[in-house]
Design brief:
This is Plasminogen receptor, C-terminal lysine transmembrane protein. By secondary structure, the protein is mostly helical. It contains 4 helices and no strands.
């Protein structure tokens, strides 16, 4: 009788462990999906911000270009057109950021760095572990929990 009860408890324990493993896997998958959705939303906000900034900077660039060109023609001083060059580079960057392939090129470069220059990504003192986080928490907290006594 004891053997059958023990066998039943072992089977029950195995089922419970499988259920817990399945549950933790499901929770991890949900967290990964949620973090990815948050990342996508943040990227969309950055692209939208770039597009909005481009509208304002494009207007400024157009007015400045027209004004500098009119001033250079009126005063017969071609040197007045010099500020258009750096402003043009900034405008081109903003255009690439808002509507071009800048994000794709940045992604490819990041993948290349991750593949061939892994040492650049290492954190000082290595990756935090539970023990290092717990040690820092204890050092900051003057309160000692009942479990630590």
């Amino acid at each position: 009788m004891g053997f059958s009860l023990s066998k039943s408890m072992d089977a029950n324990l195995t089922k419970q462990q499988e259920f817990m493993l399945h549950n933790s896997r499901l929770q991890l998958e949900r967290q990964i999906l949620m973090q990815n959705q948050m990342r996508e939303r943040q990227m969309a906000m950055q692209v939208a911000w770039s597009r909005e900034l481009l509208k304002y900077f494009g207007s400024f660039f157009a007015v400045a270009t027209l004004g500098l060109t009119a001033g250079a023609i009126k005063q017969k001083r071609p040197g007045m057109l010099a500020p258009i060059i750096p402003l043009g580079f900034i405008f081109a960057y903003q255009m690439d950021s808002a509507y071009g392939t800048l994000v794709c090129r940045m992604k490819e470069e990041a993948e290349s760095i991750m593949a061939s220059e892994q040492h650049r990504l290492d954190l000082p003192h290595g990756t935090p572990t539970f023990d290092t986080v717990e040690k820092a928490r204890r050092a900051r907290s003057g309160f000692v929990s009942l479990l630590e006594k």
